[in-house]
Every structure is written in C-alpha cells, then in structure tokens.
Amino acid sequence: MDPLAELMQAVKARGRGAAIGYVCSYTPEELLEASGESYTRVIGSNSTELADSAIPTFTCRFARRCLQQMLEGELKRVVGAYTCDTVRGVASIASWRGVESCFINIPRDISKKRSLEYLVRELEKLAEFLGAAEGGVEEAIEVCEEDRRAVMRLAELRAVEEPPVTGVEAYLVELSGMLMPKRRHLELVQELLDTLPSRSGATGARVMLIGSTLTNIKLLEAIEAEGCVVVYDDLCTGCRFYWGLAPASGKPLERIAARYVSRAKCPCVTPFSERAEYITEQARRFRVQGAIFLLQKFCDPHLFEYPALRERLESIGVETMLFETEEGEAEVEKLRIAVGGFIERLGG
Amino acid sequence: MRASRLASAREISYAIGARVLAAKLYREQGGKVAWVTALSPVEVLYAAGIMPLYPEQYSAACGAFKTSLKLVEKAEEAGYSQDLCSYFRCHIGHVLSGEGPLGGLAKPDILLLSGNLCLTRVKWWEILSEKLKAPLFHLDIPFVAEEDSWHLEYVRWQIEELMEFLAEAGVEVTLDSLKRSVELSDEASKLWNEVMDLRKVRPCPMGARDAFTSMFLIVTCPGHPVAVVLLKRLLKEVRERVADGRGALEEEKFRVMLDNIPTWYDLWFVDYLEERGAISVAETYTYSVWSPRLDFSKPLESLARKYLYAGLNESFERRIKAALEVAKEFEVDGAVIHVNRSCKPYSSWAYELKNALRDELEIPSAVFEADMTDPRVFSREQVRTRLDALIEAMSERARR
Ligand code: SF4
Ligand code: SF4
C-alpha cells in the first residue's frame, strides 16, 4: 500500500483499541513506548455529550471531545501534562470520575538546574505509573528520536521552493505518528522519504499555520484548495510534537527532560519572548509569506499571545489572518472563503 | 430585608481603596511598588518594604465602580479576545488607556507572578512585562494533585530565588524581617479564620457583601500590620453580634453557600436571596483559601506550603471534599454556583460540585452562567428564575 494511504487510515482510526491515552504533546512519549502497552494520543471523540454535562461549554471543544473520549471508558489509563487551565480541568474531572490517570508538571524555565531536577522527578513519577523500566526507556528513546528525525527531515524539505509534499500530506505524516505504533510509523515515513525525489513540487503562496490542535483534515484541505501551500505548521498535533531532539548521552530520564529545552515551544509553558523568537525564526526558515492563526475557540494560551505575535510577524513582513474554529463541518466553507481573501492580500 | 452591614467591614473597604492612593505617594517618595498576582508570597515583599498592588483586585473594583465594561472594550479593540478572563481584559484596558477608578494604579517597579490558580495570569504578567519593561519574577508553582515532597522543595527554592532577585533590584530581605512578616501574616490568618468560623452560628452574624469586601484585606495585606489591626476590629464586631444573638438577617430562614467569584458589577443576587430570608454563611471564594496558618520559625517552608496548596491549584478530590466539609459544618441548605465564563479553572468544577452536594448531602443548587466583571453576559431574569427554584427546593427540603 502507498505509505500515505496507510497513514491516512491511522488518522481515521484515531488510535482506537489502544490501552493508554496521552493528552498533550508534552507527554514524554518515550515512557509510553517503554511501558510495552499499546498507546495513542487522545484527540477526542466526535460527540461531546458526556463531557458537556461535566465541564462548561465555554471551554475549548477539543478538550471537551478529549474528555468525552476519556469518559467513554475505552482507554484503560490516561496520562498527560498539566499545561493549560482547560487541560487541568479535564484531567481533574477524569480523575474525580475514577479514570486511572497520571499527569506531570512541566516547569517553565528548564534552563535552570533545579527546574530540570524537578522535571526529572515528575518523569520518575510517570515512569512508575506506567511501569516503564529504565532499560526499556533507553531503547524507547532511540525509536522516538529516529521517528522525530524522519519527520523533521520531511519537514525540512518544505523549506525549499516548490516543496515535494503538500501541507495536507505532511500533516498526515505528523498526526498519524501520534495514533499508530511508533515503529510502523517510522517505516512508513522512511518509505515515503525515499519516493520524494521523484515527486513534482507543490506551488502557491507559502503560508504557515499557528495554533494548537487540528483533527479535521478537511480544514487543512480547504486552506490549500485556495492555491496556497502550507510549508510549516506550528501545531501541537503537528510539527510542534516532533521538533527538537534529545541530547545524545546522559541518563535516560535526564535526556528526556533536556529535550524539553530544545523542543518546539508551546505558549502554555513558554514565555512570550521565547515563543515570538521561535515563531519568527520558523517563519524565516520556511520563507513564509503569510501566517494563518487557526485557533481553537476559547483557547486561552494562544488567544493571549495573538495580538503581540501578529505584530511581530507583520514587522518582519509576514501577513496574518485569524480564524477561530470548533472544527465543525459548517466551518470548512467559511474557512475556504476567508483564506481566498487572504491569498489575494498575499498577491497570490 | 437585606442583611445589616458591619461598620468594621466598611472601614476595611476604605482602607483597601486608600492603598491605591497611598501607593502613588509611596512611589513618589522613592518607595518601590510591585504588581503581584493574588496568592503570591507578599510576606517577602512586605519584609522588604515593597508595596504590592493587585491588578486582579483593581479589576474587581472596576466592576464595582461600573467602569469595567469600558475597559474590557478597550482590550478587545487591541485584539484581545472577548473569551479571555475579564480581570485581564479590564486591567490591560486600564494599562492601554490610562483610564480607571481611583485615579489608576501606581506604575510598578517590579512584577511578581505566581503560577498557582491559572495560566491566565502567567500570560497576563508576561504581556505586562513586555509592555512596561519592568523586571518580572515568575514563581513557577506546580499544580498539585497529590502531596509530593518535591513540589514543596521546588517552590521553597524559588522563594529563596525571589529574595535574591529582590536583592539584585536593591532591596535586602533579612531573615528576621521575613519572620516578622510571616508572624503577622499568621496572625491575620488566625483572625480571618475566626471571623469566618463564627458564621457557623445561628443566626449567622455576617452576610456575603461584608465577607467579599473584607476578604480583600486578607488577600492583599498578609504580613502587614494593618491586616491585624482591622481584622481585630472586625472580629470584635462579629463577636458582639454573636454574643447578642443578633444575625445579619432579622429572620434567617435558609443558609446558603456561594461558589465562585461574584458578579462584582451587580451583587443584586445576594440581596435577592437575603430578601427571601436566605443568608450566605460561607463562600468558597472567601473561606480558608487565603488564610492557612504559618509557622514563623520556618518562614520559607510555611510560605511554600501556603502558596502551593492554594485553592484552585489543587485537585478536585481535595477541593470538593473541602467544600462538602464546609457545607456540613455550616449547616448549609442550598448552594448558588456561578459558572463564571472568565475563570475557567474555577468554573470547571461547577457541575461536579453541584452533583456532589446533591448526591452526598442532598443539598440543592442554583447554577447560573455569567461573568465576574463583564456585565454583557449577565441576565437578572435568568438568575432570578434559578434562585426562585432554589428557594422552592430549600423550602421543600425544610418541610421533609
Ligand atoms: S486547544 Fe488550547 S485551550 Fe484547548 S486544550 Fe489545547 S491549549 Fe488548552
Ligand atoms: S482566570 Fe480565574 S484565577 Fe485566573 S485571573 Fe482570571 S479570575 Fe483569576
């Protein structure tokens, strides 16, 4: 089968059947891999019925869908990181309702020694919860790093003129890696990388996406249907998950912790100045003309930084647009029209 | 009949307003002012002679002065979403426009941020530090679902760092002065807890309006002698009422518990309840969160504990159990739960709290959705319907 088709299948299956779910891209995937159990990222059910009777509807719909998935009871255990207030609420409700779970805190300034030590302590707590043995962790780190390198290599190819993959294709690679067995994902990405030299390039105005999560691929298709190509996505269910590698040596948990220093920055755990630097750097590296803020409605961490980040991007000549979404089907057409207008502004 | 008010609570409200003015004079004379988040270790600042000001409290005041709408609109014009916390929108509206009650807040020399309670304030203080170019200290406080020693060590270590940060800014904090302010803070806690506990008495001597007003003192002045002085007067007045068997209401029919931050621009719902004989005997917002006891011989550890196990920073397990305990001890007949659009961390437990009160204690609740400082999403009609239903449910419960 064509690797992209298999990746697409994994996205459609949404990790169904896995025993453990993890909620955030800051969850150390290595420990899940080392647990020896099947696991998947929690990206939510389609309905929010159970969740809406547990948490107010002015919290982001993504989190409510995730809560729904946790309350439906298919996952045996749930792990994650306490990032935004909504995730804390969702984690608290799940645990209060008896879902077996373990969440860790991510210190905000990991460049300090004591913060790093604190993070390692939190990782130990999680490793214990998951039953991840130290030897297993080392091996798991290698697999996860290999997968990251492969996905990042693919991402780097998007920096060139007429990239060999569209934004939709690249996103399938990224999202599927959170929903299927790691080793199989790695094989498929490598296979795909081998076929790329023979592919023709994607053309159109170069744009980047900024936001948290995206699970309705149709929204991404709608964006590219308007004649642009998404060359980088700063999404927590996309590139942000993979960006940045662990140091090559050290004790396993320390390596995992240290990776958090160099990984892509999320607004929940990163001061604005660092975030702005990282975003503008990526905008330059991928030579983008425009940035689309595709934000989940009620997503505070991103909404807070939006005005200042928009200003920063515009100051380096990157045009911006904002679209708040709850990922409903009715939004697909609205987004297409909005992007159409945006592309005109970009002169595309 | 509405609840009769306490003279000492009125004094406290004057003192709180006066702090805003005093800070300007203090700064003009060379003193340092800090903008801090509620539940930050201000005991350290008081020990260093730095005057803390509370933007969150200022936003609440903007609500009470009915100027919050104008300010939140200013923030929205600048691109801040209407879905963000209205304390933030109100304050950033004030920073951007310079407008606001009491002549505005004195500018800060230092920004102090504590990561307990919410991420909102983290983003908020970062924006302030970008805009005002004032040095920011971020006390990174983890969320606590379980009592693990390394959380406490981590916070304790950062309080030491805060002292170093202040030293770099040219203000020394000696261990002796810190012990003194921790001692004062503990004394204020003790007084505050006594006042709150006296509300267990029937008839209840103090209503919600007085509790909300005087709460600001324990929030903003722990570690400053003024809190001790004024809380002593409050305690004295409340004790007198208790001794005389005088309740805040002439006829106390129902005892209720209020949840979440109130709608500052319109406390009408409190009056509406009181007019029907329902007095608030405890609020989850005023009770115990602000006032744990401290051991001044171990100042750093005491402070770390106080600011780590701080209300919204704890798991539902701990919070709901505590709320049920209060409901039992205060002999509550019903609860009024404000599902506050601004405060996601506070509101995320609303339905679980309602269910727990019903399932564990057969206590009915009125639940309404609104916002603490943005009046646009408040409807008296909606609230009235819910409160009427609650009164009905409490009457029925009393008949059983
Ligand atoms: S989309 Fe935003 S608000 Fe929702 S869970 Fe993610 S970071 Fe939190
Ligand atoms: S989100 Fe809640 S806790 Fe945070 S500043 Fe707003 S009202 Fe306060």
Bound molecules: iron/sulfur cluster
Strand portion of chain A: 5-15%
The CATH topology of the domain at 16-135 in chain A is given as Rossmann fold
Strand content of chain B: 5-15%
Strand order of the largest sheet of chain B: 2-1-3-4
Q: Could you spell the SSE succession of chain A in H and E letters?
A: HEHEHHEHEHHHHEHEHHHEHEH
Calculate Rg of chain A over CA atoms: 19 Å
What's the CATH architecture of the domain at 16-135 in chain A? 3-Layer(aba) Sandwich
* Terminal Cα span of chain A: 35 Å
- The dominant shape of chain B is globular
Largest interface: A-B, 47 and 43 residues
User: What is the top-level CATH class of the domain at 16-135 in chain A?
Assistant: Alpha Beta
Let me know the largest β-sheet of chain B: 4 strands, parallel
Give the helix proportion of chain A (percent range): 40-55%
Computed over alpha carbons, the radius of gyration of chain B is 21 Å
Strand arrangement, major sheet of chain A: 2-1-3-4
> In total, how many beta strands of chain A?
8
Subunit organisation of the chains: heterodimer
What can be said about the biggest beta sheet of chain A? Answer: 4 strands, parallel
Describe this structure in words.
The complex is a heterodimer of chains A (348) and B (400). Chain A is of the alpha/beta class and 348 residues long. Chain A has a domain at 16-135: Rossmann fold, CATH 3.40.50.11890. Helix content of chain A is 52%, strand content 13%. In chain A, the strands form two sheets. Chain A has a four-stranded parallel sheet with strand order 2-1-3-4, sandwiched between helices. In chain A, strands 6-5-7-8 form a four-stranded parallel sheet, sandwiched between helices. In chain A, α14 links the parallel β7 and β8 (319-325). In chain A, α1 packs antiparallel against α9 (182-195) and α4 (61-72) runs parallel beside α5. The radius of gyration of chain A is 19 Å and the shape is globular. Chain B has 400 residues and is α/β, with parallel strands linked by helices. Chain B is built from 16 helices and eight strands. Chain B has a four-stranded parallel sheet, with helices on both faces. In chain B, strands 6-5-7-8 form a four-stranded parallel sheet, sandwiched between helices. In chain B, β1 (32-36), α2 (42-48) and β2 form a beta-alpha-beta unit. In chain B, α8 (175-198) packs parallel to α10 (225-244). Chain B is globular, with a radius of gyration of 21 Å. The structure holds iron/sulfur cluster (2 copies). One iron/sulfur cluster binds next to α4, α5 and α14 of chain A.
